[in-house]
Amino acid sequence: MYGYHGRYLRIDCSRRSSQMVELAPCLLRRYLGGVGLGTLLALAEGAAEADPLGPGNAVVFAFSPLVGSPLTTSAKFALITKSPLTERLNDALVSSGFAVAGKACGVDALVVTGQCPEPVLVTVDDGEVAFHDAGPLWELPIPELEDRLRRRFPAGFRWAVIGPAGCRHVRFATVSHDGRHAGRGGTGAVLGAKRVLAVGVRGTQRCRWAHSERLIALARDLAARSLGPATSKYREIGTIANLVALNRLGALPARNFQESGWEAAEHFSPERFWQRHHQRASCVACTIGCEHRFVVEEGGSDASRATRLEYETLFALGPLCGIDDPQAVMQAARRCDESGIDTISAGGTIALAMECVACGLLDLPWLRFGDAAALLRALEWLERRHDWGFWLGEGSRRLAERIGGDAPRRAMHVKGLELPGYDPRSLQTFAVGLAVAARGADHNRTGAYEVDLSERVDRFQLTPEQARLACQSENQSALLDSLILCKFLRGVFTDLWHDAARMLELVTGWDISADELRATIDRIITLKKVFNMHCGWRAEEDVLPERLFGPSGINRQAFLAAVEAYYQHRGWNPEGVPGCDQLAEIEADVSQVRGYLLSAR
User: Fold this and answer.
1) CATH code, domain with 384
2) 40, 56, 457, 543: which is deepest, by most CB within 10 A?
3) How far, in Å, CA of 539 to CA of 143, rounded?
4) What pLDDT shows up at residue 297?
5) Strand 17-22 to 59-62 pairing
6) Do residues 178 and 152 make contact, with C-beta atoms less than 8 angstroms apart?
7) What is the domain count for the chain?
8) Cα 309 to the chain's mean position, in Å?
9) Which residues lie across from 281 on neighbouring strands?
């Protein structure tokens, strides 16, 4: 077998045991890796029916056939679980050396299930699993925890860790590795509930490639193309440039989406950030180098004080909360990173609380839009689960239900996941993609805002034709998330489907076509819907917050027609349910994995 090991490692925290479980080559070809394979394993493990914070939920660390290859941006892994925030599928991805070291343990995935009675560190050393006491390390800030782990364990281990927020079950706690985060949906809280503080991996079992010389030649060509104009923005400025650009387009949400533009946007122009001490870095096995770090304290130059900034963090902790002080936003971002908190959900939940204070629904007079000290105080309360901070740590949907009145109409989420920083009223193809995504409102599961910002559609009007374009964008994202490759690479390809088939052929030896890949991705997206159906999904969940509809926003009837057209393009019925043949195909594959699991036991 090329590109794969043909098995996954199941780690049962309740029994402190582990077992290797077979994966048939046909299943690997049908679900690739990453999000596709991980969702299949999570469904087979019964995660969809489990309490997200109970022992029955599973966390899947899924690798892919491209991990460990010379292809740029391929050092990524996916984390799949049932989200404690949305109670639906959560699939998050992160770039790091953990992916390469984890696959070198001789497996295509790690599955963590059960629940430990006491806090533990789990190590996987060339496939051998051990549990170590983590009591003295519990609730440490992430940088300190990672430093302690490096000093305590032999060289070569790569760690995925949770911070204080995960230990305290903040429902949008992250899983972190070397300053990067599998951020959305609360996988950190799931590991915290299992009392797993960190997973460390080290291995020597490398996969072979079917056509090594041709693969290396392709990798060199792709690396050269990755340094071209399609990625120049990410290399030279970073995604922080999006804030000013979206504001000029009237697509920058501010003050909990009460506004579609922000008067203080120029405070966050790239030029102002570049005046600070600045560092640039790359993920493992990446030629693009999109990471930009800036010193938090004015005039500082200590590298340890630098904080990574991306557009979504600036948006969520800046205009969404009305904060116009870049220094305060960087301090807030750093606090989130150290505690392991998703910045988008944190900003969205705090912004809801600020609006509820302003309209008299919530008696916290200090929590006001535009007050930087209030933002930092709210994050401290959230991390510690202090007073109303407990409800801030539950996410905007649960916070709104706790406040009552018309607060739920002000909560800006889809399926419980807070909206990212692109205003759907000004990007209406994107609006459809947000509503139907299995994960909830997420710009990483649909890139349909690119369609809106092109000349292909009128971004202020919605037609059923845009559902097809939203469908295509979701397909592209699912392909990249299952291969796995970085989405910043998408503009480098002339024909992504053809190029992806060629990469898989050279790595695995499969005679695979672009058409087969399209069918595979259709299957993976249907699988994600099936997972949510097992969770209790209903058609009325595929909707947007009430605030986004109306004369100055999205036409409700046009939106409903576009969602129905999306279902039609997927081959699903008008209620969004896949056809009987599609369901039977998925259930047969799930049953096959469960059969392998029973055999391993």
Assistant:
1) 1.10.569.10
2) 40
3) 42
4) 64
5) unpaired
6) no
7) 3
8) 16
9) 291
Asked whether residue 411 falls in the same domain as residue 522, the answer is: no
DSSP symbol at 577: P
What average pLDDT does the segment 69-84 reach? 96
pLDDT at 281: 78
- With respect to residue 343, please indicate whether it lies within any of the assigned structural domains: yes
Which CATH number characterizes residue 467's domain? 1.10.599.10
Give the C-alpha separation, 298 to 317, whole Å. 19
In a domain, 217, yes or no: no
Task: Provide the pLDDT for residue 391.
Answer: 98
Residue with tokens 């922080």: 240
Distance CA 182, CA 176 (A): 6
Locus of tokens 């697509």: 251
410 has a pLDDT exceeding 90: yes
372 assigned to some structural domain: yes
In this prediction, residue 301 carries a pLDDT of 46
In angstroms, rounded to a whole number, what is the distance separating the alpha carbons of residues 595 and 601?
A: 10
Nearest to 578 by CA among 461, 438, 483: 438
* Same-domain check for residues 401 and 490: no
- C-alpha–C-alpha distance, residues 173 and 525, integer Å: 25
Instruction: Assess whether pLDDT exceeds 80 at residue 251.
Output: yes
For residue 119, give the 3-state DSSP assignment.
coil
Q: Which of 350, 318, 333 is nearest to 242 (CA)?
A: 318
Cα–Cα distances (Å) from 242 to 94, 339, 346, 496, 525, in that order, read 21, 26, 20, 24, 29
76 and 173 in a single domain? The answer is yes
Pair of tokens at residue 54:
């109970």
Range of the domain at 564: 457-581
Rounded average pLDDT over 512-539? 98
Is 593 a domain residue?
no
- Where among 418, 446, 475 does a domain terminate? 418
Other beta carbons less than 10 A from residue 455's beta carbon: 6
Buried b (16+ CB within 10 A) or exposed e, 560-577: eebbbbbbebbebeeebb
Tokens 């503080």 — which residue? Answer: 197
* Those residues with Cβ within 8 angstroms of residue 44's Cβ, 6 or more apart along the chain or in another chain: 590, 593, 594, 597
Residues 149, 161: contact at Cβ < 8 Å?
yes
Instruction: Determine the angle formed by the axes of helices 465-483 and 514-535, rounding to 10 degrees.
Output: 90
Tell me the two tokens of residue 142.
């992430």
CA pair distance 526, 534, nearest whole angstrom: 12
Amino acid at 146: E
Element (H, E) at 123: strand 120-125
Q: How far apart are the first and last CA of the chain?
A: 24
Dihedral sign, CA of 368, 371, 377, 383? positive
When pLDDT is cut at 50, 70 and 90, the band that residue 271 belongs to is confident
pTM for the model stands at 0.96
